[in-house]
Amino acid sequence: IEPQCYKQKGVYHRDRYYGSMIDTSILKAGQDFSELPNRCIIVLTEKDFTSNTPMIQHIKNGVDFRLIPAQKFKTNVISVFFNIPLSKSTVTKAALLPSVMKRGTEKHKTMNEISKYLDELYSATLRAGIRSKGDGEVIYFTVEYIRDKFIGENLTQKIVDLLKEFIFCPLAGDDGFVEEYLNGEKENLKN
User: What is the rounded distance in angstroms from the CA atom of residue 108 to the CA atom of residue 120?
Assistant: First the structure.
């Protein structure tokens, strides 16, 4: 792995060069080229070469946002995943957490306010939940929204800000989450 600086010249040629070095280290003299195994080289760059868009944004200490552009879809999906260990003592709290967090934020205090704001973002959809993965669990927040090029404005930044709001600024009081929301989600979990 060698991170590439966006301002370096010849990054594509450098990648081709490194790929050939890998191939020559695998293939011995006299071997047929068909014996080369398939390989995948992943190039991490600071910006997307085609649009000058930042590929990595530092959101908070230890949390980075990574963008993987795909041009063939009319919508984008941004997801944030938190991997946590599976534990008897925390499984119920972990199941409640995303549901309570999506009930309100400091800025959008009710589900109705959140829904109206998502409508303003061209009917973006927000999902939050938890699922099992191996010997752990994954808490996730996902937003799907129309790509910027179809509406002529920077919706992506608003979506990233919204996700940051859900994760870092959930609606809470002095003693933790809003008790009404917490109790409501406990009832939902029981049913």
Answer: 13
Please give the structure tokens belonging to residue 7.
Answer: 């301002």
Residue 15 has which token pair?
């990648």
Which residue in 53, 75, 170, 58 sits closest to 121, CA to CA? 75
The pLDDT tens digits for 108-162 are 999 999 999 999 999 999 999 998 888 888 888 889 999 988 999 989 889 989 9
Strands annotated E in the chain: 56-60, 63-66, 75-85, 125-133, 136-146, 172-173, 176-177
Conformation bin of residue 47: beta by default, left when phi > 0, alpha when psi is -120 to 50: beta
Q: Is 187 helix (H, G, I), strand (E, B) or coil?
A: helix
Contacting residues for 95 by C-beta, under 8 A, at least 6 apart: 130, 189
Rounded alpha-carbon distances, angstroms, from residue 97 to 54, 75, 155, 181: 31, 27, 27, 11
List, in sequence order, every residue forming a beta bridge with 60; answer none if it has no partner: 63
